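Board notes (copied after class):
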Amino acid sequence: MLSQFTKGLSLACILLAGALDGAGMALAVEVGEKAPDFTLPSTTGKDISLSEFLGKKYVLIEFYGGDFDPVCAKNLSARKADYSKFQQLDIQILGISGNAPFSQKTFADSLQLPYPLLSDMEQNATTKAYGVVSGNKWRRSFFLIDKQGIIRGQWRGEDEGVFSNEPLLKAAQEIAGQPAEGVGEKKASGM
């Protein structure tokens, strides 16, 4: 009887500790703050750091939940569809998830993505730093970072649909000082 109670109490403590850890680590970064730097393995075969783009390119980070998930595949493919528009604005797209690099490589190849996916599998430190994961739950999130490393836009949500490129491109055009040509006024679905 005491053994059952001890096991139950231990399980409760583990669950409470996990909840507190997740809650404590899910501090979201805000627009106007310096973007947390990271160095992560990528589908290029090399580690990629956010800091390598400082002074050179804007960066759009798309945090996605899982490789081979149909919604994630559609969202990453949406960025691929307008990749040339992102390139014209000097934006480097980086997709980040907690999946293993070999899985990401297969996934990226299957979608023929022209931009790298990065693995935050080891400790989820990057996703926690950006407030994307709380406990074990990921929130689809986008961050637009300027050439000085400052977060200039963020979009978060739980929507199961495809997130439109329009608000991302419009925000990028505004910070780049370029007119928003070819970008409609439609709102992103659910975010």
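Comment from the instructor: The chain has one domain: 2-176. Residues 166 and 184 are 7 Å apart (CA to CA).
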